[in-house]
Amino acid sequence: MSLTSTSTLNNGVKIPWVGLGVYKVDKGEVALDTVKSALDLGYRSIDTASFYENEKEVGQAIRNSGLSREDIFVTSKVWNTEQGYEETLKAFDDSLNKLGLDYLDLYLIHWPVPGKFKDTWRALEEVYEQGKVRAIGVSNFQIHHLEDLMKDAKIKPMVDQVEFHPQLYQKDLLDFCKENEIQLEAWGPLGRSRYLDDPVLNELADKYGKSPAQVMLRWHHQHEIVIIPKSTKPHRQKENADIFEFELSEEDMRKIDELNQDKRTGKHPDEFPY
């Protein structure tokens, strides 16, 4: 397995298991260089959003790479203030224009804005049916949001991208997504580097001859979760990609599961200041 290894979504589209997230990557040269180094290292999935204000640079870096468009999986998201049916159709076109692309591989509802996300989903279904995007999904949706959405949806979400790491092991959500053929994707899979000094992770890192970050990312992979770790540094991007040559034992997987404290680095979706 490698950076080109993929998971198959419920509509048959393939998404790389590991991608690059670009949240809080400054626009301009930093974003261009960050995406360029990732693509040079073999990354083939880039995750951005209108809220990140770096879609233009992501698109430019993809064009500069010389790679075929179909070889790169591009994700973007509709922000909370852009939600609603007509608004989302416009936001989608705006993202495409900024990226300078003819289509997206995945488009997500960024947060479940109360009273709006169903109309937003109708717009996603429309751009999907028009062939402007290969897959559609959601982000930061809890089980109750997914159940509510699927009551009225024509098309089931293909992805749910949520905060997920060993201190926020959302097992019930993971199980629900697996049962419903929704691919779970983790943002912040390293917990924003806040607990890389955890003794259990360090003990396992020593055991496998890997870094604590690699142990955490491998844990996600063995739980069949797509990951988009963010780093602007090429050596860290390389390290984050190097998780396919070892395997955690079942016992060690359980040890990491038990680190859960339901501890978030971001807002809880039910408490977000919409």
Automatic annotation (TrEMBL):
Domain of life (superkingdom): Bacteria
Domain NADP-dependent oxidoreductase: 29-260
Keyword Oxidoreductase recorded: yes
Stored PROSITE patterns: ALDOKETO_REDUCTASE_1, ALDOKETO_REDUCTASE_2, ALDOKETO_REDUCTASE_3
Entry keywords, A to Z: NADP, Oxidoreductase
Pfam families for the chain: Aldo_ket_red
Entry-linked PANTHER family: 2,5-DIKETO-D-GLUCONIC ACID REDUCTASE, NADP-DEPENDENT OXIDOREDUCTASE DOMAIN-CONTAINING PROTEIN
Protein family (similarity comment): Belongs to the aldo/keto reductase family.
Record's protein name: Glyoxal/methylglyoxal reductase
